[in-house]
Amino acid sequence: MLNLIIVIAVVLVIAVVFTAYRVTTLVDVVKKDKNKSHVPSGNSFQGVLMIIFLVAGIAGFFYFSMTEYDNYNLPIASEHAVITEGLFWTTMWVTVAVFIVTQIFLFGFGWKYRYKESNTAHYYPHNNKLEMIWTIVPAIVLAWLIISGLKQWNVVTGPAPENAELIEVMGYQYAWAFRYPGKDGALGKHDFRKIDAINSMGIDLEDQSGHDDFMPSQLVLPKGKPVLLKIRGRDVIHSVYNPHFRMQMNAVPGMPTQFWFTPTVSTAEMREITENPDFNYELVCNKICGKSHYGMKGIITVLEQDEYDSWYKENQENTFLKQNPSYLSQVPEDLKEAAKIAAGIENIENEQKVTSAASSSK
């Protein structure tokens, strides 16, 4: 309620000032002598307002930047995020410094060179030294910022460490799908023509490597181990984004991308840091991908290595083929028996035979 009152008061003050200015202008127009050059009486007043606006704007910028720091600068939860954060703040301070200097000149010139009858224009057509300075200096600064960022970009999008955990992520309207390799450690091929309501990632079951792949409902990561995300888009451009990991990579249909990073803070630890027992890392799309874009959110859980190993061992038994045995029809005949073994379907059939035999003996 107090904030609303403050907003209304500010609006009223602005309205009063604007009205007073308009009245003064109209009075000046009525009194104007056609034989004399017209200089509004509010000329100096407008110059003062410009300086007030400049000071208030800069003060407000720093005030809200500092007071809201914890809201827009979230805790870092990955190794590469430290470098990314450094690059971000370096760029931020350079641009803020340039912005403030240019605004001081802009508003300062407006005040200093406001109209006065005694002022005389100075003809100043060209200055080679000045042209060189404001061309070369920005070029050097921008080149430094771009090269620094490009080096880090080439790292996170380049080859991942050999021990990296391999995970495939697919974005589609309006959800995420995840695929992990099974015991063979390799993801099977995919084919967009295989995509349907159940096989959301288009797993190509003609490829033997995909027979033991599994698809959990959320993205689970190990703490302290590199993770390589193989990223795809199914329909329109999405973006794999999480601010805590300083992770962002577009999911583009027909153009697979990748991004690797090393999580450093588990979900349990981040709950203690944020003092929020319900905290979860979120995987969100920051591309406006359609009418339900706002609801495109997935859960990311970071576990300690031993917890992750247990989770992985448990979930790799729930292979895609085991959960959907009807898809065995897509497996080539000469690979079906091997596919049953890799997917764990053979174990189910054996258990059913044992159960049936036990029931018959009774």
Helix content: 40-55%
Distance between the termini: 76 Å
Rounded to the nearest angstrom, the radius of gyration is: 32 Å
Beta fraction: 5-15%
Structural class: alpha+beta
Taken in chain order, the helices and strands follow as HHHHHEEEEEEEHEEHHHH
State mean pLDDT (0 to 100 scale). Answer: 87
Please count the beta strands (DSSP E, at least 2 residues each). Answer: 9
Give the quaternary arrangement of the chains: single chain
Bulk shape:
elongated
Structure commentary:
With 362 residues, the chain is of the alpha+beta class. 47% of the residues lie in helices and 14% in strands. It has helices spanning 2-31, 43-67, 69-72, 79-112, 128-157, 267-274, 305-315, 320-323, 336-343, 345-361, and strands spanning 165-172, 175-179, 219-222, 227-233, 238-242, 247-251, 257-261, 281-285, 297-303. It has a five-stranded mixed sheet. It has a four-stranded mixed sheet with strand order 2-1-4-7. Helix 2 packs antiparallel against helix 4 and helix 4 (79-112) packs antiparallel against helix 5. The longest helix has 34 residues, at 79-112. It is elongated, with a radius of gyration of 32 Å.
